[in-house]
Amino acid sequence: MKQFTALKTCLYSLMLLSILGCNNSANSNKENKAKDTIVAQKNLSNTEEEQEPDKPKKVQSKDTTGTLGQSKTDYSGTYTNLAFTEDQNCECYCLEIQVGSSSELCLKPGELYMEANFKKVGDEIHVFYQGASVKSKQNDIPWNDLDTGTAVAVFSKVGENEYQLDWKGFQIDGKTAVDYALLGKKTLEGTYKLK
Question: What is the 3-state secondary structure (H, E, C) of 40-75?
């Protein structure tokens, strides 16, 4: 019986030690996390203090598309079609890409223009028809019937500062709008470079 009581006492002692050890370990982890948070906040405030509050922050613009094989960002910028280098004023053969915003695209110089929206899908930019531009002079095109939820073109990087626009064409009710599918193919499809 004395051995049984001694064994019980040892077991209770071991359980008590392990419970206290776990609590100390948890408290130690909490203290370490609190210290890390304080150090991170101090580093952040030091960085903010190093910047002069009266001077505005400089925004640098750069090609954010990366190099082939690297992670790409949003392709924002103005691109010129290499087949039409004489269009220095970007009257018809340029793309002004701003992901999440709309831009006017030329389908036929001086006559047909559309509003397009750009959406990043993977490493590509999908171009979506949004409506006719106010500059369009032809009203015989069923602008309101053209699908806005299907990409009319895909823009992607193919080399160092070289990009490709693949014109897919317009659709009506999910089917290629044969009479209007080629609008934009001559002016927009091709190889581009960042201006």
Answer: HHHHHHHHHHHCCCCCCCCCCCCCCCCCCCCCCCCC
